[in-house]
Amino acid sequence: MKMERPQARSLPKAPTGIHGLDEITGGGLPRGRPTLVCGGPGCGKTLLAAEFLIRGATQFDEPGAFITFEETGEELAQNVRSLGFDLDRLVEEQKIALDYVRVERSEIAETGEYDLEGLFLRLGLAIDSVGAKRIVLDTIESLFGGFDNQAVLRSELRRLFRYLKDRGVTAVITGERGDKSYTRQGLEEYVSDCVILLDHRVTEQVSTRRMRIVKYRGTTHGTNEYPFLIDEEGFSVLPMTGLQLDHEVSNERVSSGVPALDAMLDGKGYYRGSSVLISGTAGTGKTSLAAHFAQESARRGERCLYLAFEESPQQLMRNMRTIGVDLEPHVKKGALRLHSARPSLHGLEMHLVQIHKMVSEFKPAAVVIDPISNFIDNSTAIEAQAMLLRLVDFLKAKQVTAVFTHLTGGGNALEATDIGISSLIDTWLLLRDIEVGTARSKGLYVLKSRGMPHAREIREFVVTRRGIELKQVTGKAGKGKRKK
Amino acid sequence: MTPNGTAGEKWNLRLYTAGQSPKSLAALDNLKRMCEQHLAGRYTIEVVDLLKNPRLAKDDQIVAIPTLVRKLPEPLRRIVGDLSDTERALVGMQLKQQK
Q1: Which residues of chain A have a CB within 8 Å of the CB of B79?
Q2: In sequence order, what are the beta bridge partners of A170?
Q3: Which of A111, A121, A147 sits opposite B18 (nearest CB)?
Q4: Where would a tag sit more exposed on chain B, N or C end, judged by fewer CB atoms within 10 A?
Q5: Taking residues A57-70, what's their average pLDDT?
Q6: What is the widest separation between alpha-carbon atoms in chain A?
Q7: In the predicted model, what is the mean pLDDT of chain A?
Q8: In the prediction, which pLDDT does A104 show?
């Protein structure tokens, strides 16, 4: 075992262009060296390798060679087409060279000594034909099925990896997960620089894909499992940031969309980039309050992403229109994006990946998640807390103001937004039913709001056709904040 | 020993090599010897040097070197190695039944 000096010098890296992967690897795969990508059947090895190559050719001006041992060129082209990549065209444009190496034991009789020089010549041909800087071998283990002489194979494999390094190509080698080792044929023995493990699990009918960097020489990397998605745009990996509390902090304030509430918050509203939690029992106006904020953001010309997990965009727009919050024009203008999904559709982490991806693409200044309760209810407390932590962290790092709504149970549990997310939240608003004499009314109060003096009283409010209106404070509870 | 195949049949063999490597040279020697012994007068051997024409490695699906391909008589057979194991080579070429 060798110990590397940590970060002695950073290795040159080849960016993958894959959402999230470059972040967790600190810039990509080791340039000019082989990386092993392994995992069970259907875990996405081939697609990851293909995307690495295709993005290299299209985004980084690094042509690539794809050597496939399992699929014919057409099969491969078809597979990557599902990710929105046109492999045929790249081959035509000479940005990617493709070679299908067929090895079938039934066709081959062995009589004496041989080597795999033919394979080397083909690799050389593929590399030279397009000036490849990247190469994929998917999956070289198939050779073991085609030839008997293991000793020859192993020494040739060693020679192969040396050859790839000599050629200076950044290589991705895929391998099928073995019982006791990362790959069936112990390919990790030959790849010393970077090993990535992919995993596909289904628990309670919810599938989760995860990625782990098992080894990355000379680079500090997270040893966590990172969830990832494969969708029509390829891979997205959810990078978990170091969870350090070193975000940039803004002194800027943004309106909640309800002037009277802004007044309760030191007269200025939320801090930009802070996390706001609106919790309350059913029907207390959480969505209405969140929608005010979304509308106000869009009105200021700032993009807002509204994730609705209980209502469709149409229903949300209709309902909000009845309280004077018209979201539609902002949606049409593109300042507001409404996205609905059922929380149970994916696992917690998949949602997180998706949110992550949407935020990275849309680049909103504000995000509303309405409600966050469903996630919490569908998972264990630890998972939920971990997810929220990651979400809050991610949004903060991007200086995105986040508003979460949370449905609490009735009775005394009001303040017990259980999962210990309190510490993650900067401003916490509580909505509740209050009984005044024989009438029921709604009350709002600021449970906490970091970094500002805020009102302490419970304010009664009504939801009218013109939106949320806070009533004047009566009696002794007022502390004069209302005058601003 | 009776060759497997009718007497008048033409044998068309192609040997893929990479330059003048010892394995390639050994394969050619072994092949010539076997042919003279079993197929005298009715065989052709074509040697393809893939170093000179690597494209053919791709086109003809060659991975190992040396590889011998029996093109005729059909069906096509592939035999890898320097053919030093005469017994297996003859079986592989179907010049001899497997014992």
Answers
A1: 108-111
A2: A134
A3: A121
A4: C
A5: 94
A6: 101
A7: 84
A8: 79
Distance from CA of B22 to the nearest CA of A (A): 10
B58 interface with A at CB cutoff 8 Å:
yes
Chain-chain contact of B92 with A111 (C-beta, under 8 angstroms): yes
Distances (CA, A) of A36 to A16, A126, A146, A363: 14, 20, 21, 33
pLDDT of residue A347: 67
The three-state DSSP-derived secondary structure of A70-83 is CCCHHHHHHHHHCC
Those residues with Cβ within 8 angstroms of residue A155's Cβ, 6 or more apart along the chain or in another chain: none
Single-letter residue type at A123: L
For an interface test with A, the pick among B58, B69, B82, B91 (most A C-beta atoms closer than 10 Å) comes out as B58
Amino acid in the structure at residue A331: V
On the question of a cis peptide bond just before residue B73, with omega within 30 degrees of 0, the verdict is yes
What is the SS3 assignment for A360? helix
Q: What is the pLDDT of residue A13?
A: 93
Across the interface, whether the CB atoms of B66 and A114 are under 8 A apart is answered yes
Q: State how far the Cα of B24 lies from the Cα of A113, in Å rounded to an integer.
A: 10
Q: What pLDDT, on the 0 to 100 scale, is given for residue A478?
A: 42
Buried b (16+ CB within 10 A) or exposed e, A261-280: bbbbbbbebbbbbbbbbbbb
pLDDT interval class at A248 (50, 70, 90): confident
Return the number of other C-beta atoms located less than 10 Å from residue A244's C-beta. 8
CA–CA separation, A308 vs A311, rounded Å? 6
Amino acid at A243: L
Gap from B46 CA to chain A (nearest CA, Å) = 17
* Residues in A touching B82 (Cβ below 8 Å): 111-114
Note the CATH architecture for domain B11-93: 3-Layer(aba) Sandwich (3.40)
Cα separations (Å) of B10 from A82, A296, B43, B92?
A: 49, 87, 6, 17
Residues 6 or more apart in contact with residue B14 via CB below 8 angstroms: B45, B46, B47, B48, B68, B69, B71
More confident residue, B74 or A124: A124
pLDDT at A375 over 90: no
Q: A66, A91, A111, A123: best mutation site toward chain B, by most B Cβ within 10 Å?
A: A111
Q: B84–A116: do the CB atoms touch at under 8 Å?
A: no
Tell if the CB–CB gap between A108 and B80 is shorter than 8 Å. Answer: yes
**A interface with B, Cβ–Cβ below 8 Å:** 99, 101-103, 107-119, 121-122, 124-126, 143, 146-147
